[in-house]
Amino acid sequence: MDKNRTEGTKHEIKGAVKEVVGKVSGNKVKEVTGNLEKNAGKLQKNIGKATDDARRELEKRRG
């Protein structure tokens, strides 16, 4: 499994927690920062998935 998948998931979870804490506490900066980190984590996770898919396809074609 590509490292970006695990790192992306960690950032996604961490960002979601920050976002909720920001909402509950009324801290807009923390809320927005959390949202950005969550979405960056999703993107990183998708990059890792694409890398894994490409690697698997390449291995399939090689035989």
Task: Please give a quick description of this structure.
By secondary structure, this protein is an all-alpha fold. It is built from 2 helices and no strands.
**How much β-strand is present in the residues?**
under 5%
Q: Poorly predicted ranges (pLDDT <50, ≥5 residues)?
A: none
What number of domains? 1
- SS-based structural class? mainly alpha
Sheet bearing the most strands, described? Answer: none
pLDDT averaged over residues: 96
Please write the string of helix (H) and strand (E) elements: HH
Helical content, roughly?
over 70%
Name the shape in a single word: rod-shaped
- Number of alpha- plus pi-helical segments: 2
Strand tally is 0
- Tell me the Rg in angstroms: 16 Å
N-to-C CA distance: 20 Å
Family: Belongs to the UPF0337 (CsbD) family.
Protein name: CsbD family protein
Organism: Rhodanobacter ginsengisoli
Pfam families: CsbD
What does this protein structure show overall?
By secondary structure, this protein is mainly alpha-helical. It has one domain (3-51). Helices cover 92% and strands 0% of the residues. It contains two helices and no strands. The protein has helices spanning 3-25, 28-62. Helix 1 (3-25) runs antiparallel to helix 2 (28-62). The protein is rod-shaped, with a radius of gyration of 16 Å. The mean pLDDT is 96.
